[in-house]
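Input chain follows. Return structure tokens only.
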Amino acid sequence: MNYRVFITDGHWRKSLAAVRGLGRKGISVTVGESTFLATAAFSRYCRRRIVYPSVYYRPSEFLNFLENELALNSYQMLLPMEEDTLLLISEHYSDFAKYTYLPIPSFEKLEFARRKDNVLRFAENMGIPVPRTWYIDDISQLDSIRGSLAYPAVIKPKTGSGAEGISYPENSDDLVDQYLKIHSRFPFPLIQELVPKDGPGYGVSLLMGENGNLKASFVHRRLREYPVTGGASTLRESVRCDGLRDMAVALMKKLDWFGVAMVEFKFDSRDNTMKLMEINPRFWGSLSLAIEAGVNFPYLMFRMSRGQRFEPVENYQTGKRCRWLLPGDILHFIFNPGRKSLLPGFLNFWDKNTAYDILSAHDPLPVLGRILTPLTFIYDRDMRRRLKMRK
């Protein structure tokens, strides 16, 4: 039988990783995006590409389009990859679940998990270490805390990922000015102590079953990121850290989670403690590393859709690296003052133990799709919005 899976948000490299992870297993993949110049749609494993209405600008039209597509074509599974798409589909879960397997948590759980203030308070109540955080619900609170903070501090929105809306005030005047600026776009952001940048960041990627049991786990360490001050990883390495994994699993079980999520931690060198930073309640940008190391999350979800039973997948190759070269690691190299002392070096392109998020000799055309992406900023306002959000 020819099984088919529909993957949304084909622009992103995590979507490309999912297409490859399923396609290599012989599953026919359809890729959807609001533009035909979608990186994942150029993959040899993409059997069909679809241009659909913008999730952000035309949500009702998108929902109607997707329901018609699922009704007219037989899909074994639907995988929403980006947050806007995931939230919209989860809000209308019953409309789509009657047509296909949809391995996502409820809208209410997604809304809870995507808010850093919710997650930090919840984790702290469980005894999981978190950075010291100030939760602001009245601007007048700034006057009472500005003189007692250790600087630099961090201001970050309650929701969102990457570097968008994050600022690092150096003194009390900076704190107020930068807070008000961020508050105008992201109401009442958090204020946190700055965990020293010399401590590496870790991601614990999990797949939870419908009964809340662990189905797969994977841990990676960030080696480089862009922006250099904190953003998406441009080079990362698979590691084992069972204590960290167990802490993340306990957290997601307590949330009664279903589907995938990545729990992010950072090592605090001041007290040699791992501090929980946030939950990424969807597929993550570094998905390709997990698949390359031996934990094929999209395929495991497909097996779940078939009702197959399997023991939790927790063994994988450690020391495996994956690199987001185009343009991530290139930008890291350009903007990192310590570029000459990078380990591993930037020019180390032929390391047999390093795979690439997009580059692949066996699947080369997605590079063309990524190179052509700037053309979409000319005609597609949805893509222009995404570019602006990543600045």
